[in-house]
Amino acid sequence: MTRASHLSMFLARFDEMRNAAPLSPDLAPGVIFRGVGADTRAAASEPASQQAFRFLVLALHSDEASAHSFIEHRRTIVPWLAEAVEVWSAVLRPFRHMGECNYLDQAVPGPIFASLDSPPDPAEPIVIITTAGWEVGDKLDMARVREFSNGVLGVRASMTGVDGLHSQQSFFFPGVLQHDPVTVTLWRDSASARAFAYGPGVHKVQMQRQREQNLADRTSFTRCRIVRGEGTWHGRDPLMGSKDRR
Question: For every one of its 246 residues, what pLDDT tens digit does the chain have, with 9 covering 90 and above?
């Protein structure tokens, strides 16, 4: 199984609630996973509906050239993004990754990256991607899934006004739990992200609950440096968020 070296993503916002359209089958060479997720929680819609105002197009790539090509061929691969009122696109390189995810093999979840970059300058903006997954089948305990999901909602609500946070959003892919749901957070710098992740508050409590109660069958987190970023998100360029670029 080929593991990824880079990620690419589009974050897209629309003025009206809608469903995403499919990706073009004519993808860039080197794409080993791609999916379109909907932030249904922020739209107060059901995950299965895939109706939202904000969407994520996420791709994993075997090499950096493939990730850049995916961004550059946006009009062909994701033509419906032309209808968005705001889009931010990025090529990302992971520098820390732990846990398991089912994006490369739904039957055998595992680590998804072949190698990791060195940590970025502490003042650089970063992107953090977290996933959680469950074994889908007759034995799936939906009460357990809901308990984990309630914790995610609590963490998202607690992030209002957190120093260094540019934005937070979470997405379900079609099929709800067939591919692990993902949360994407954009940060001004690594120090701010670490302070939130390991400091006191709801996030620390939820991490402890997961360790003790095993509410999800698997989780992962990936910290990424931004190799390339274009556009705006929440009205500004996330790359302009670091302290030394103000």
Answer: 799 999 999 999 999 999 999 888 877 789 999 999 999 999 999 999 999 999 999 999 999 999 999 999 999 999 999 999 999 999 999 999 999 999 999 999 999 999 999 999 989 999 999 999 999 988 899 999 999 988 888 888 888 889 999 999 999 999 999 999 999 999 999 999 988 888 888 888 888 888 888 899 999 999 999 999 999 999 999 988 544 333
Q: Please give the Cα distance from 189 to 164 (Å, whole number).
A: 7
Domains in the chain: ranges and CATH: 6-229 (3.30.70.100)
What are φ and ψ of residue 57, in 5° steps? -110, 115
Name residues whose C-beta falls within 8 Å of residue 193's C-beta, 6 or more positions apart in sequence.
126, 128, 164, 185, 187, 223
Tokens of 226: 């931004």
Q: ∠ CA 47-48-50 to the nearest 5 degrees?
A: 70
Closest by CA to 220, choosing from 129, 134, 103, is 129
Compute the Cα dihedral for 49, 54, 55, 56 and give only its sign: negative
For the question of whether the overall pTM of this predicted structure is more than 0.85, the answer is yes
